[in-house]
Amino acid sequence: MDFLNALVNITNLLIIPATTYGAQLALGALGVTLIYSILRFSNFAHGDTMAFGTIVTIGITSVFQSWGISLGPLPTALLALPFAVVVTAALLVGTDFAVYRFYRAKRAVPIIFVMASLGVMLMMNGFVRFLAGVKNISFADGERFIIKARDFKEMTGLAEPLGLRTTQVLTVVVAVIIVAWLFWFLNKTRTGKSMRAFSDNEDLALLSGINPNRVVIVTWVIVALLTTTAGVLYGLDKGYQPYVYFQLLLPTFAAAIVGGLGNPLGAIVGGFVVSFSEVMITHVWKKVLTYLMPENLEPSSLMQLMSTEYKFAVSFAILVIVLLFKPTGLFKGQSV
Amino acid sequence: MKKLLLATAATALVAGAASAEGHGSEVKLGVILGFTGPIESLTPDMAAGAELAMSEVTEAGNLLGGMAVTPVRKDSTCVDAAAATTAAEELIAEGVAGIFGADCSGVTGAILSNVAVPNGMVMVSPSATSPGLSTVEDNGLFFRTAPSDARQGVVMAELLMSQGVESVAVTYINSDYGKGLADAFEAAYTEIGGTVTISASHEVGKGDYSAEVAALSGAGGDRLVVAGYVDQGGGDIVRAALDAGAFDTFHFPDGMIGDALGGTFGDEIDGSFGQAPGSDNPGYGEFVMLAGDAFNGEGTYASESYDAAALIMLAMQAAGSTDPNVYKEFVEAVANAPGEPIMPGELGKALDILAEGGDVDLVGATGVELVNGGEAAGSYRVIEMSGGEMVTVEYR
């Protein structure tokens, strides 16, 4: 019984939230990594692209709701998501035509692209606030819980509760589907193979007749899919707020770099490394250990490695350690 | 928002009309509150409370021989000290004779030391409660109608003890307000035998609070004390704690007591308690009636705001001057006994008494008494969440 309680406690407070957060970060990091490997720069406007995609989804969702369309127990936002991806893709391709194409034609060095993306970030930042203001918007509807904490306690008779939200399961399921599709696309389809070729050696790819404009446009469309999905899943789970999305840029980049920039598998692993380390190292292990240890050996202190103020320091410390020993990240990516 | 616009428009109209009738002279008072930021859901009622006092005085038409009082609103943002300082400097440039505000402790301290003291400007805050502001160098220019959190800490500790809650987990916003309150509470609570299992800070504007909630839950406790702001951070932690079933009941200090609380969580937090400054003195009811439909007179710090603005204007009348360095000496005198007790709605009468050289004691909406160099002695309204509504259960 004590062992079960400890297990439920860890699942409820660590595994479920960290898996959800990790999946959201992984989707964001995948986008960062795709842009880095194919377009060859770190896109600072990534967080605000997520915010833009989410706000478009929120707009379309409210239109659907006013028409009385819903998905029953699932959030209506899922139905609005494909439309929002199209709008976001249009914005990204438009940005590419207006800003990045110019520098690509001049074969500018990557740092120029990064600075240009910083400018794009500031403009998107303002645009998103102009569209929907700065307030917290909650747009999740449908069934909120799969397992309610209180019901679980009554059902099982355990001392520890376990809560599972619909959005948490949804996040993981949708993330798995999108990642599986992306890997199939990159490895099996002609377009995907041409993208990889373009990423490996641009000149050789051009020589073999790959159309660079097509590769660029397809990349932005996939990035729109990844960012909008990540943003919407995050917003459904935790509520939409532009400032928070902007702040997500840091853990997202940390995830992409830890995993190895340019390596899609690395981005996914990186997302989970960041989310789990944030939660694990700042956790108070007293309760779990009290369940597991024999009665007279119960810990009297909190058994907390680091206080929660340092949770951001944790992911950056991991970043530094990984870069020190493996400059290309956990999986073989490009060195930064 | 509509209400707010209406109230502002009405105030401006009344002020305009009165100044046309009067001697054509006006006195400007700064109203600096966080109209955007973590407590943006509280500030509209606070501003309306202060402006109610101002329009009342303007209508009475007997402040220093008939001066009209015009409020000038600025945004303190509650959290950004640099933005708040700039806003306060704008007020000085516009020639205000006194500043009503600011709201949050951090920005209030910043405005006080960067703007008010160098420019010799009187500040009366309705809601800055950090214990640190009691000892700050203010040249006698700073007053507050809200009690210090040193007092709130004691009230909260005694309240929890009287309900038989002997161990709590505490999370506080990483700011002057949160840290000050958490420290004051922990000291008071442990002194009377309670146990604080963990005292962990949280930041505003972070999306993910699962690490904080996990740590708080791991440490355990009968209740979770959330010394944060309802619109940011604090609210998110309550949400995450409820979803994970980490805590069922909470204790909310003043920053969490807002309309958003009942609206967001409904009956999920039934059985939780909290306290915010407030009193059962008869003036409170009269103030709520005066507010009527124009704004929510029971809003957190709305009544303190009325009293803060009233204090500035009564002190001006007592001093016979709008010069802050002259009337600052009179603020405590008009707030405290001896003198004719003044209820909300009686500011005109008070001005008459002062003009004739009499003495007044502003009771106002909160029964304000200034002690300890210009801060309210403090009584608190204890609320309980019941059926998704905030119910006032007692006063301490």
TrEMBL record, chain A:
- Please name the Pfam families in this protein's record: BPD_transp_2
Primary residence:
membrane
Cellular component annotations (GO), alphabetically ordered: plasma membrane
Q: Name the InterPro entries on file.
A: ABC_transp_permease (IPR001851), BCAA_transport_permease (IPR052157)
- Where do the TM regions start and end? 20-39, 51-71, 77-99, 111-132, 168-186, 215-236, 305-325
Q: Select a single GO molecular function from the record's annotations and give it.
A: L-phenylalanine transmembrane transporter activity
Q: Does the keyword Membrane apply?
A: yes
Q: Where in the cell is it found?
A: Cell membrane
Q: Check the record and name the CDD domains matching this protein.
A: TM_PBP1_LivH_like
Q: Which GO terms describe its biological process?
A: D-alanine transmembrane transport; L-alanine transport; L-isoleucine import across plasma membrane
What keywords were assigned to this record? Answer: Amino-acid transport, Cell inner membrane, Cell membrane, Membrane, Transmembrane, Transmembrane helix, Transport
Does Nucleotide-binding show up as a keyword for this record? no
Membrane disposition = Multi-pass membrane protein
Which PANTHER family does the entry mention? BRANCHED-CHAIN AMINO ACID TRANSPORT SYSTEM PERMEASE PROTEIN LIVH (PTHR11795), HIGH-AFFINITY BRANCHED-CHAIN AMINO ACID TRANSPORT SYSTEM PERMEASE PROTEIN LIVH (PTHR11795:SF371)
The entry sums up its family as follows: Belongs to the binding-protein-dependent transport system permease family. LivHM subfamily.
Protein name per its UniProtKB record: Branched-chain amino acid ABC transporter permease
State the organism named in the record.
Answer: Marivivens niveibacter
Automatic annotation (TrEMBL), chain B:
Its keywords, alphabetically, are: Amino-acid transport, Signal, Transport
Task: List the InterPro entries.
Answer: BCAA_transport (IPR051010), Leu-bd (IPR028081), Peripla_BP_I (IPR028082)
Q: What's the short name of a Pfam family annotated to this entry?
A: Peripla_BP_6
**Keyword Signal: yes or no?**
yes
> Which positions carry the signal peptide feature in this UniProt record?
1-20
Q: Which CDD domains match?
A: PBP1_ABC_ligand_binding-like
Q: Name one GO biological process term.
A: amino acid transport
Keyword ATP-binding set for record: no
Occurrences of domain Leucine-binding protein (ranges)? 26-327
So what family is this one in? Belongs to the leucine-binding protein family.
Protein name, UniProt field: Branched-chain amino acid ABC transporter substrate-binding protein
Per the UniProt record, the source organism is Marivivens niveibacter
